[in-house]
Design goal:
alpha/beta, five-stranded antiparallel β-sheet
Length: 426
Amino acid sequence: MSDVRVLISYSHDSEGHQKAVLALTNRLREAGVDAWIDQFEEHRPPGSWPTWMRRELDKADFVLVVVTANYRERFDGESPLGVGSGVRWEGTWITADLYHGRQDKAKFLPVVLRREDQWLIPTPLNLTTSYVIGEGEDADFWKLVRVLHASPAAVPAALGSLSSAADSPGQFKDVTSPPEIAAALAKAREGNVEDALRQLRHACARLHGEQQAQAVYLFGVLSHRLGDMGQALESFQWVLDNTHHADLRVCSLGLKDIVSAEWNTHYGEHGPVAAAHSWLNLLRRKWKAAEVWKRLDDNLRLALAQDWIIANAEHPVVQGEDRDLLARALAQPKPSRELAKPMLDGRIEALRGHYAGWDPDTWAAPGPPRRVGLDYEIVVLAPADESTQGFPLLMRRVGREWLVANFQSAYVIPGWPPRQEEIPGP
């Protein structure tokens, strides 16, 4: 029996498409992969398909995502209300799992049955290898089987020792590393980066010439690793200003450019910090409630709408509605249902109370950027005098815009009830 469990996620486009997915599933099973689809459960359907999908996603070692135009539309939540809800829930969970970064390997593998459909692969999935598996596409099928069985076509040679690497970060041509630098690098390789920085700080004060420049350069490298972009930029600039050593200058200039780009991405005019400040400024203006709601991520709006429906389940108008359709309608960027106004008034007023202490003149985002997964970043806003605890905002990049994805460091997963998954510490 195979020890690799694979769930296949797909949209029910047509009877022919379902048969093609079933044929792929059985072909994988014949190749020794324990592949599974919902069609195997239809003779004894579970009490709740969303619960079944969540359980199967958790159980699977891999999830094959069979992408079509309909799948992409539903994954992105752009299909008509009530259509393709299964794929929408899977899309939410798949996206959360991808951004959560809990997997040691690429768990979600995109598959298309026609090569021309590769461009349809959703953004969270298009950074990994995709597979074209249809008639006459046996090459990709066996590549996929190898991945699922962890049986590579090529085996790498054994690694040499660190001391044999000519480009070790602690070594530069014609610069003899003193014991302080070697000790600091050893600490860093053990994972004690803060101890390594303390040792390098002492070394920078004692050393001279190119050895001092080497110590400052490494101080910048490790500062960047801890997320302190300001300290890293100062270190690389110091090296550029104080040494003529060609290799040290080239390395410092290259890393300075990289860190500068990261700094601008985080703190720049179109970055997540500016977007967080803009959203909080809108929240302070009572006539901007619609814009405040519009700048929330789709999943957050949906979860807030679901939470409001649960809290008002006894209301006569709510009782007469299909709650899934009502939640989708209320979660639109510009909801038009008659219940939209009382929901928005309550949600926005609660947020104003929560952020009442925020002062745009004295609060900032002093900490280093904290990127999470592909498109998320945590922005912590706090007063300069540290007189009170700061507010974390989870920001999500959608296209060229940053939206508020949650009011704490956790992913929002819509449902009945909606839930949250805490993002692990850095």
